[in-house]
Amino acid sequence: MHEPPFRDPVVPLPDRIDDLMRRLTLAEKLGLLHQYQAPVERLGVGAFRTGTEALHGLAWLGPATVFPQAVGLASTWDLDLVRRVGEATGDEVLAFHHKDPVGAGLNVWAPVVNPLRDPRWGRNEEGYSEDPWLTGVMAAAYARGLRGSAPETFKTAPTLKHFLAYNNETDRCTTSSNLPPRVLREYELPAFRPAIEQGVAVAVMPSYNLVNGRPAHLSPLIEQVLRVWAPGDLLVVSDAYAPGNLTGLQGYHDTLPEAYAHAVKAGLDSFTQDDDRAEATLGHLRDALAQGLLGEADVDRAVQHALSVRFRLGEFDPATPYDDITDSVVNCPEHQQLAREAARRSFVLLKNDGLLPLSGEVTRIAVLGQLGDTLMEDWYSGTLPYAVTARAGLGERCETVFCEAVDRVTLTSDAGPVAADPAGGPLSVGVETGEFDLFDWGGGAYALRAVTTGRFVSVDGSADGAPLVNDQPGPNGWEVRQTFRMEERPRGTLALRHISTGCYVGAGEDGVLRLVDDADQAVWLAMDVVRSGTEQAAELAAAADVAVVVAGDHPLVNGRETEDRMTLALASAQDAVVQAARKANPRTVMVLSSGYPLTWSDDEVPAVLWSAHGGQEYGHALAEVLFGDADPEGRLTQTWYRSEQELPDLLDYDIIASDATYLYFRGVPLHPFGHGLSYTTFDYDDLRVRVDGDVLRAEATVTNAGARPGVEVVQFYTHQQRSRVKQPLRRLRGFEKVRLEPGESRTVTLTLPVPELAFWDVTRGRYVVESAPHQLMVGRSATDVRLSARFEIDGETIPPQPGPLRAASHDEYDAITFVDETRADGDAVRSGAEGAWILFRQVDLTGAATCVATAGSTEGGMLTLRRGDPLYGQVLAAFPVPRTDRYTYHPIASPLAAADGVHDLYVVFENDGVTLAGLDFGAGA
């Protein structure tokens, strides 16, 4: 029997897709627009599911190799290593897929390419860097590994998350990210481009938030930018339950058929809604077709995108290059070694006064701290097949002594002491005294572990009356029920407030501790320390050759998906342990394990080593770095600020105006972007720079000037010294990682196409390379510059702008918000306060006698056009804005005062709530 063309791999891909689509009914096509794509049994087309999590190893499906968190992988500054981790992860996805084709689908939701604009973001550990270019090349490397090496067939289909401008968990479904055009084009979009343009990522997931007032799932940029970049079809999958937000939390549309039709037309191809229950979604799409809101051509376009990915995965081929992958690859010795290598290369030496590397004379180490003998799984990690902790890894090298360095406490109410049920059941107030170990995870989040059971206190339920039990291995789950805040009460007592529910802990008539809604019903507890964690740590530190304090965050507690951080400070109890250990033994190393930058109070600790949560081989890797078997290779991919007070508001996405990230930050950070020490020293010399046509070429010589082999990450930055606009203080343009023996030199090079020096010109809506002097900087970090040289670029001079002027494409602003011009497309601006303004620089008014403002206001209002100054500048025109509905604009004409020539113009919003789409100028009669 002849196979149909869609099953023939010799037939060109577009023809195969067309053949299958012609065979599908409209109902069958609709069935392909949900996360759980329905099978078409009459054609032998199987079920298909999008969305296998694979951020730093296969997640959620059982034990699999766990690699360092994404921010840790990026800290290696090793693209080949990141690719190999992606390749190993793809192999393990395939192994699970061959056993469960639908449960372990081949559309993987990784990597995350949101630039790490603000370290308080709860999902910081999921991204790569605050630099968009570095994020982009790291994401492309990981996606290339996931995609596989076969030229025609994909191993897995990587999906970039989350489009667009998503860096806050606080009210993430209802907040709108303010993105001026330059921030959009120069910061947010570039992170997505490499993996899409190179064809190694074939899918994108929009984010939960709104962008300039429009839900990201409805962004016109999906079609206007992302699909323009893609060399083939690009699948767009929704985030979980985000389609329902369009009429729910966001209230952007009145009905789901209307919302879903808009989403499909905007470019959404797959609805992740209602888990595996697709019928409601398909019903709304059928209603949209019946109401004429959606056409079959719209459905066909989305189905083509969905099928294209399945074809490229080889689903309809007789065989693929990956059919022989079995579950023998899962946590195989090669992947274990790769996990160890990745963890080792990710360590960043932040400070070293000569204590490290440890010598062979060290025979006894005190391993201290809450993270000293445990490894953490984050929300998107796999299940650890085994765990080499710091204590275990160091214990293979020498004798170790250990304590968690947490306080052991008792809790007592007026009715008696609190005790834990030895069987793991409820906590109760009675005559028996129970002891608890108190864990401080920072940000005011504490966990209690019952000594009698070794299990953590949790809440069995989520409503008023739910009892406190002690049956959990630690903080865990989507809704973490094992953390509490402590609120002061009179006479030195405290009340416990359950973080997940916001309820307080009270005592029922039966003496059982239960949640209560009313703070006045909270039981007052006296907390007494039975054993001091800091004293225990100091005692062990004093008796050891070296103390290693392992401190940091819990990935499910102090910041994670759905929860941002308010502080960067290391948990106060952990901070105190570091100080106590260092005072007891000056040979103390602070080892930080966290998914985000931290601050601490002990400036005298001689050595500080950081890594993200490092996966299953963390302890082995740590030992290799501490004892100098390997040079610390990691470099920071984020600025480490001295305090969260140096950061703008969490919801302020305009990094240019707020001087945010290493690109614009003018302060002196705790540790700069790109920072990381070595156990040797490096000399830089002989920088040579030339512009060769459309290419900037630079080279320098780097020499290992120390007595040990070492690894250096040579970083190239540029700064445009003169411009029409505010330019970054420095921007990473390339790097080279070199391994040098003592005395060895190497020439490092940068080859940069001159068009990459462009910025977004708001006056003409395109990228432009200005004629200007630039500085090239070479060094060890963004601020540790060893060599620099000046070079000139012969580009353009931006001319005055004659109009029309798009309101969103202004040069500066105050007290305005970017909003959606229409529900489908365009940006406008709205005033947020009386006296708000936007500035257009160098507007050519030659011959202009009238001005037309396209504006609207739900309350009515007034705009004025001023020259030179928003308060005292000459009023050139005034525009009374009539009351309209939200998306109705009126052209409001005004005579223009005599102002021939080129001027800086301010549009001043005399009251709030006025929306402006644009200005245009006309000549006199």
Describe the protein's architecture and organization.
There is one protein chain. This protein is of the alpha+beta class and 925 residues long. The chain folds into 5 domains: 20-327, Glycoside hydrolase, family 3, N-terminal domain (TIM Barrel), CATH 3.20.20.300; 347-404 and 534-639, Rossmann fold (3-Layer(aba) Sandwich), CATH 3.40.50.1700; 415-523, Trefoil (Trefoil (Acidic Fibroblast Growth Factor, subunit A)); 680-793, Immunoglobulin-like (Sandwich), CATH 2.60.40; 805-923, Galactose-binding domain-like (Jelly Rolls). The protein is 19% helix and 29% strand. It contains 18 helices and 47 strands. Strands 13, 14, 15, 16, 17, 18, 19 and 24 form an 8-stranded antiparallel beta sheet that branches. The longest helix is centred in the N-terminal third of the chain and has 21 residues, at 79-99. The protein is globular and about 90 Å long. The N and C termini lie far apart (78 Å). The model has no long low-confidence stretch (mean pLDDT 97).
Described by the principal axes of the CA atoms, the overall outline is globular
Structure summary, number of beta strands: 47
Give the CATH level 1 class of the largest domain: Alpha Beta
Number of domains: 5
Overall SS class: alpha+beta
Strand content: 25-35%
Short summary:
This protein is 19% helix and 29% strand.
